[in-house]
Specification:
With 138 residues, this protein is mainly β. It has one helix spanning 58-62, and strands at 4-9, 12-17, 24-29, 34-39, 55-57, 72-76, 80-84, 90-94, 99-106, 113-119, 132-133, 135-137.
Length: 138
């Protein structure tokens, strides 16, 4: 489901974990707009447009379940993402060069949020988790 990411700013790498209320990572809109670091998801009691959590199931997007939030397609510019297996062990996976996390962005300004699009994992990673971040070409 992507519980963490590693992103860069200049030459420094940052590991970001979703449970942190300050979790954010760099995002660009698919139409070319650069947003910079955007807060990841929405937690209980936070303002902003979108459901609680940090992920958007592809199946829910496809059936229109996200339409009410008026999301914009975006790309998460991260080098790696982390998944935990059934024993809660963390596993880091590289995002291939030229790819990014497929995301949705809701809201504007301080209420802007990014949600990672997930679907079923590739067969070789089904042992790790039942949901997997979608990758997209930059």
């Amino acid at each position: 489901m992507c519980g963490g990411v590693e992103a860069r700013e200049a030459e420094k790498a940052f590991k970001v974990y979703f449970p942190s209320p300050k979790a954010a990572f760099p995002v660009v809109l698919v139409d070319g707009g650069v947003l910079g670091w955007v807060r990841w998801g929405k937690r209980e009691g936070e303002t902003g447009i979108g459901p609680r959590g940090g992920w958007a199931k592809l199946e829910t997007i496809e059936r229109g379940g996200w339409d009410k939030y008026r999301p914009r397609p975006a790309l998460g510019l991260v080098d790696r993402f982390m998944e935990k297996d059934g024993q809660r062990t963390s596993h880091w996976f590289d995002v291939p060069d030229g790819y990014a996390l497929r995301c949705l962005v809701t809201g504007e300004g301080d209420d802007r949020r990014v949600f990672v699009v997930t679907s079923s994992p590739p067969e070789e990673y089904a042992w790790v988790h039942d949901r997997w971040p979608q990758l997209a070409l930059l």
